[in-house]
Fold this sequence. Notes:
This protein has a single domain, classed as Beta-lactamase. It contains 16 helices and twelve strands. It has helices spanning 8-14, 62-65, 67-71, 74-77, 82-88, 96-108, 126-134, 147-160, 173-186, 209-220, 227-242, 244-247, 253-261, 295-308, 314-319, 321-324; strands at 17-23, 26-39, 44-48, 54-55, 195-197, 203-205, 207-208, 265-270, 274-279, 284-290, 326-329, 335-341. 41% of the residues lie in helices and 19% in strands. By secondary structure, it is an alpha+beta fold. It is globular and about 60 Å long. The model is unreliable at 1-10 (pLDDT under 50). Helix 6 runs parallel beside helix 8.
Amino acid sequence: MNEAPLSVAAVATANPVLVEVTRGTVVESRHRGSIAVVDAAGRVLHQVGDVAQAVYPRSAIKPLQALLLVESGAADRFGLGDRELALACASHRGETVHTEAVAAWLGRVGLSPDDLECGAHLPYDPKSMEALLRAGGHPSTLHNNCSGKHSGFVTAALHLGLPVKGYIRREHPLQQRLYRTIEEMGGESLAATGRGYDGCGIPVFGVPLRALARAFARLDDTAGLTPERADAAGRILRAMAVEPVMVSGHGSFVTRVMQVAGETVRLKSGAEGVYCAVLVGRGIGIALKIDDGAGRAAEVAMAAALRRLGAFTAEQERELAAFLEVPIRNVAGRDVGVVRAAADLS
């Protein structure tokens, strides 16, 4: 007889508490989750919680999706540099630096914002949103936090002679190639994992957390990859380090970590509490998922994991202290608690 699937509540309680939120002397909230630390050969070096569970990687997967843009030859054909490759990996905040760069990229390849099928939303950056509204403007696909990724998709489709229209459909040859890339990099079949659609309209599929971590490890330790993919991986890691603001935006956790420790760490966030990282020069990938999807917990958990894996020097830790234990302030600006790593994270 088939066993009944675990309920969401059962899965959530199976994983340990990774992050606590305090208020005064009380732990007010707790966030459970799992973390996989894996090398390029697929060896699980460290784990917390269930790392075999398949999760939707969401935007954390973008550096892996950007491989096709480079290995296909599209990036070279259209003269794309570090800025565009970083944008292909980006979950940006719709700042002018992002929208202008995406617009210039599309113009270079003979396309326009109307060719992006990601939809439009207001800039996530508060100042950029206020400026747009005050000017009487309206959000466009350029402001979508995934516009760089979609620009990469349409550029690759154009180069490969594939239809640009409908590139987000699951059956489109571009999406099929991207799916195979993730299977190859993670080393596990994804045929039986979940299926859905992301916020920007592209197909999503479940990836075991350990496979996701391995895929990121292989961006650094490229043994066994084709020369074209190995070169693409190196160029993507370089672009993220050279242009961290393009990957995320001014002042964000992702940007600050790569500004401070960009020689040894690459980092990418995803919606619903997903984060991935590469320890560059060590061939180690990290993937984590917060069960309740809390972004505040995912950032603190990733910061703590990086610290405990020796990713930061003492000076870098001091520079990133505000992300390792995040203060909670009331409306008057007074500190009333913190978001911190829990003992279970070790």
